[in-house]
Queue: 2 jobs
Job 1
Amino acid sequence: MIPENSLAVNDTELNVTTQTADTTTATEMQLVTFHVGELLLGIPIEFVQEINRNLDMTLVPHAPDHVRGVINLRGEVTTVVDLGKVLGFSPTEIATGSRNIIVRFNEETIGLLVDSVADILTIKTAEIAETPANVPAGDGRYFNGVHRTGDALIVILDVEEVLATS
Amino acid sequence: MLIDDPALLAEFVTESRDHLADVEAQLLEIEASGADVNVELVNTVFRSIHSIKGAAGFMGLEVINKLSHSLENVLGKIRNREMVPTSAAVDVMLKSADVLASLINDIDNSDSVDVSTEIALLDRIHAEGAVELPPASSEAAPAQHESSPEDGKLAEPAAATPEPTATSQPPAEVTPAKAPAPSAPATSTPHESSVRVQVGVLDQLMNLAGELVLGRNQLLQTVGTQDQEGIQGVAARLDQVTSELQEAIMQTRMQPIGNVFNKFPRIVRDLSAKLKKQCDVVMEGKEVEVDKTIIEAIGDPLTHIIRNSVDHGVELPDARVAASKGATGTITLRAYHRAGNVRIDISDDGAGIDAKRLKDKAVAKGLITIDQADQLSDREAIMLIFHPGLSTAERVSDVSGRGVGMDVVRTNIEKIGGTVELESEPGVGTSLQITLPLTLAIIPSMLVRCRGARFAIPQVNIVELVRVREHEVADRISFVKDSSVLRLRGSLLPLVPLDRALKLLPGESSKSTSESSGTRHIVVLESGQTRYGLVVDQIDDSEEIVVKPLGQHLKSSSCLAGATILGDGHVAPILDVTGIASGCDINSTAEEAAEHHAERSATTADNTDVQSLLLFANCEGDHFAVPMGLVDRIERVRCDQIDSVGGQELLQYRGTSLPLLSVERLIKAAPRAESRNVHVVVFSVHGREAGLIAPQLSDIRQIAAEIDGDTFREPGVAGSLVIDEQTTRLLDLYELAQVAHPEWFVDKPKANAQGDRQQTILLAEDSTFFRKQVAQYIEGEGFRIVDAADGELAWEVLAAGEEPIDLVVTDIEMPNLDGLGLTRRIRGSAAHSHLPIIALTSLASEEDHQRGFEAGVDEYQTKFDRERVMNAIHKLLERVPARQ
């Protein structure tokens, strides 16, 4: 119920803001940014419940490819999704930088396994551009646009799309 | 005008529900007592309705107020003995109570509901009394019809009905009158969002919470001081408090099963009235408490079963009388605790299930083939009722045949960890047993490992644990194509390697479970009708686990029932026993295995007999075996307990002295090794007890090796066989005793001649060894033996008629025609059906015995137990002449 609505809202916001880029009342949003494969990704901070290094994953038989396993998150059995796998990269390798970004989706807590967490940025929604066609990883349906900060390009991840369709 | 205070309104709803919850049962009771009005009871109902009326009036709930007012009026009249509560009147009152309940459940819209019909009916009853009930009250009439032929209690009010002709018409009117009534859905229990908890339990919870806080404080303090002993103390305390807390919290969730049962009298009453049947409901154990989730889950399956009992089980009154049963059928509901579970028995004294009709139906629907149907026993056939797509109802009524079959009932019950069993006897009745866990939240389970990962298996599905050691693998596990089967006590159990079922990748910690060498750990599981062995790498421990749901991304796996968090904080998936079975196509594996087994028996006919042998060594390298079936018990004794008196070793034992036999004194064998303790194998021979000294016990094994009856043959040694590449001599305990103590056998009956003719016994046995062995001891008692190497040959001997056969002794497992087949053929032939038949087995389960007796076997004996075999022969032969 929530995903479709908010998805629609995001879309319209995007359209509106990209077309009227000079509007002075541009809203701001906070992004949690992180690396997955060669991409710098960002997700709106509202989704994020916590970021942890709880990587003690239990494999689950018959799980879809992109599900890495489950962890014990303070007594909740929490599914961990390998973002690298979802986006068509090779499976994320567990290294010192690896983190689980715990997000809330559909009343459920889900972990997103990422290579490393970068930063928390405040950006103006007006500065979000459409995803260029040359961004690797799939057909771009998991992306909500891009944001350029200095020489870095942050691809904004559509968490709901990732979790609903994967 | 509705009072605008949600809290007050909510309280009114809760209170009114409480009042109404009891009203139904009370009204039924009022109906049952008929003219003999129980004023106290009526008063109770009156007060309940009166309270609702009063509160509704205060809250401005007009419709509820009016309806309860009319209902109260009727009750008032009954209370004052101004009218008799007929079935018809009670019917209207019940319907009104239903409407009242539905109004209260939807309190916000209650004022817009039209209840004029109910009010009109009630008012008419009130005005005219039960005596002059107009035919217009269509609801009432069929019930009246039902009550009129009923015996005793209801005859009186029914007799008061002036128009018996009315009975033939009303059924037609029932339907339109019923359609607009919103009462039907209201009978189902409203979903409770709050639970009532005893104050005592609440106090206990509070106390425990206090203890928990104390424990925490202690822990925090002790951890600071690094006092190891102190920490252990605190841990023990916390452990105890947690367990108690768990129990107390569970207590708050427990509800009496009566909450579900209570709606059944009404369902049965309405349904039997509709079907023109007469049914009583007897309920026992309403106070048995189970978890609230189970109460909620069990309602629908139980309702379905009860409806089935009334619809298909209980016969029409005429049919019942014709079958010399009382016109009124009884449905019994019984709840009780058993072995940590809750059992619910639902039985009726109806017609039972017609196994044949069920088979025909299943064949007609293409669920099974005719051949399969022929092979099904009646007991197996009635289990067909759980097959999806089979409804026993000959016609589709609105009672059954709504697409919801017993298969759904079974699935729903299994979903909550329960099981259903069914028994039925034609003409006597049907009985269903449901076994339910007390709770779903915490379940006892067994932890296993496979490829380094841990899994939990619910204990309720586990039948037993089997360990097959490496050297036994070849004997006990056979491979059929890709799958394997375990030989377990004479039957074949399909095996499922867990790693393959779960498609686990090879972990670092272990190799493949299925192909690796070493000991196999097998968890024998049961789900519904299927039984299979799950092969795992290691069996850890049993643990009570808390079931946690898996996230949406993992819902698709049918092999998992959830996950749990273990003591060390790791997550372990919980296996779904049913899911794994269906995922692996167990049944076809089992069939293939059986075929394969049959082939094997046919080709290697000589050694299919599996013997249970006790293995021991007298000294290093000198191995012996004794048939387990002859062993009474095994004792471990100190050597100094053994006395030697005049060359005879005796064991002072339970106040008497037990004569002992030692191998090296009786047969060619090396003397036993010196040791402090020995084992004594106690067995009976010729009415005495004797003990065989077995210095080092090695094992008890099921062995299918071929026995060589020549090489080592001497009195006391039956033969030899190779076990684990070691030659092992098989001892004949009977002969050993005979060698040691010939005086025990002097009074042995000899020469069994009937008249001047020696009696002849036909022996069918495929194993050369046993044919010799058995023939020898039977001949030793003066009988003549005609032997045959399989059932077919034995039958030819009989059919030829050249030999005057007096008795048949047959092995069970034989090529061409097995023992059961031979028995059936003998019993089926006019010339030979009188012959006594003794079946000889190596290993026999209860089931095998049952099959044997069904085929017509008179006696079942173990091959090695010559005394019993001979006794059986004598006994059966004594019987025969009397028959001739």
Job 2
Amino acid sequence: MHRYRYAALLAVLLIFALVVSACAPAAVAPSAPAADSAATQAPAAEAPAAEAPVGVTELRITWYDDGNEGAVLRDLLDRFEANNPDIKVVIDTVDYASGIQQTLPIQLEAGEGSDMARVTQLGIMSKYMLDLRPYLSDPAYWEENFGPFLKWMQATPDGDAIPGFMTQLTVTGPFINRTLFEQAGVPVPSDSSDQVTWQEWAAAARQVADATGTFAMVMDRSGHRLAGPAISMGAKYFDADGNVALVGDQGFKDMAQLMVDWHADGTMYPDTWIGSAGSYVAGNVPFVNAQIVFYMSGSWQVGQFNANIGDAFDWEAVPNPCGPGGCTGMPGGAALVALNTSKNPEAVARVMEYLTQEDVMEEFYARTLFIPGHLGLAAKGVEFQAELPQTLKSLNVFAAEVGKLAPLAYDLQAYKYNTILFNANRDRLTQVFTGELTLDEAIQRMQEDIEAGIAAQQ
Amino acid sequence: MSVQSRQTPTLPPQRITIGERIGRLFYQIYAGVMGLLGWLAEPIQRLVGVKHMAYFFVLPNLLVFGIFVLFPMLLNIYYSFTGGSALFPQDRPFVGLQNYQRIFDCGNLLDPATCREDRFWRGFFNTAFYVVFQVGGMVLLSMLTAVVLNRSLLGRGFFRSIFFYPVLLSPVVVALIWKWLLQRDGLINAWLVSMGMERILFFLNANWAVFWVIFISIWAQMGFYTLILLAGLQSIPKDMYEAADMDGASRWQSFRGITLPLLMPTLLVVLVLSVIRAVQVFDQVWVLTGGGPGTATVYVVQYIYETAFANQTRQYGLASAASVILGMILLVLTLFQLRVGRKSDIA
């Protein structure tokens, strides 16, 4: 009996040892001190990746995709890894709203983030960014080619950190389904005029929608997307002291009122704004399905429309509609930045230096159909790898829109707390659409939400 | 017959079945584990005495409860008295009752529009409405289903499985299935259009959205409570019904006089479990409607989640205060149930 007792004891000890060893961190190789830590810190949605061999530093990028950019990046990184066998880069592709906007900041706050990430809310994320300046061989190259955009990534107004580079510059602006215009026999307003107002576009889109059984307009459920039209309608957003002041901002109220009216009379596709609460929703799906005449979004959609719509119908970008305040969209973009949770800043800097080489960037922009965030390439021009005329035309339209952006649009984009502002605009305005608040009440609530949000940040 | 000629009969060789072998193996493992525990427990018993050994046995469970329930709960209470957006408690400034004051800063507590933190109160009233109708509807339907399934009907086992099946599904799967059915281009609208009728935009109309949120949660959870009530019904002695039958009692009288009183303890358990679950409603609705249209299906837990995590300002203190308030409401409801349960036991 004792024999069995000892055998069972050994079995229990063995199971216990296995459980303990499974929970323990992987062994640390002296030559690669952080390879294992990166693996244990990986977010839940990580890509399947083999364990990095001893002596190889594993870096992780938290990434999201609008189109094919993840695949292009992987291709470029494969070439980098072939020439740099001591570094392995894993791309963890996550959902933009839940992965980048919601989960990543919490991971970073807890010190559990990845080495690099593709982010859009540069101001509010700047406190988690790593300054690569001490690790770069040629910081002047970065200042020369990314200088204006580096300002968006500073944690303090006078900062000179180099945390990363823009994977794309974006401009918000509308797309139209020209095929629907042709089917309805309605002329496209921008074909005959350089300056078409928002009201004129809405009227034309309504005519097309009535004739074709579609919806006239949709806008991404985003305060950022609303900002360009609002500035065009004369919104000021800030008071003389530089503080957000929405109450009494007639231009903002006018644009908000247009949105309310368009939702009330069925001009706007209601599912995107009304059918949700508390998060960003893109309006691209009904547009791709040819259910929408006019879609207010931005340049980042070109790549995926090129792939998903192709020539199924004639789609194209058109210049931003106008109002008393101008005809502007909003600048923006996504940046690949180094994060201060990285244990391998030197390796991160090597990857970043490779990716920002002019020829590498040119290939990236050409294949992803993104507007270059590299000043040298922007000046030289990129030969985009697209054959569809609507794709090339749309890229040209957005490139032209960059030069027409209002100074206030740049100020708003550089404002550190713009995310708080945009979210308050989005959620409170939706409550007006559903009748929960009046427009005046909603604007008052937006102001209070923004002030409370900024106070919490400080 | 001589004594020597009498031989002991030889027994046939013992045949051990696979079941017995497995049983023995398990016994041996069990004996080994118990031996190991005994080896650990004996010196402890010598040290603390037999009287205090109970603490040793509840220690593992206490540790798990302490680390994963009690400590986070206390930490949450502490967070509710702090401000700022820092994650770690040591980095958060103490603000006293500020977060609670902000939540209760209302012109009229019954009108969310007059409250500073109006979204909390919208969530609160939405939750109250949901609890009343979801729990009421579910208990009633579970009761009816259990009474029907308790009778000898054809295919009783099949029906029991059918009613229980949705319980096995994850809330996210349940929400996705119904979303595909109910959305603008979903199956139900496709059918309506094919019949020449207008689409119904279930998720863009507040009344429809609330109705479907309640209906779907009843559909998904009803089987669980039906099973509990069915067990309660089966524990009622049959002879009581026979006696009532002999006395000429109608079915309704039997139900009111026998079934309901004897089922009351089970019914109370069902009630408290379903109320607690209803107050915590979140995941299914988050996937189904996202809280929309507007804030029609935003419930308190969604408010807490958005305030703490989805909202870029990450107001952990405010979210913690809201969750403490929610916890207090649950505590009051549970104590009330216990009190009612005790009274019913005495009666």
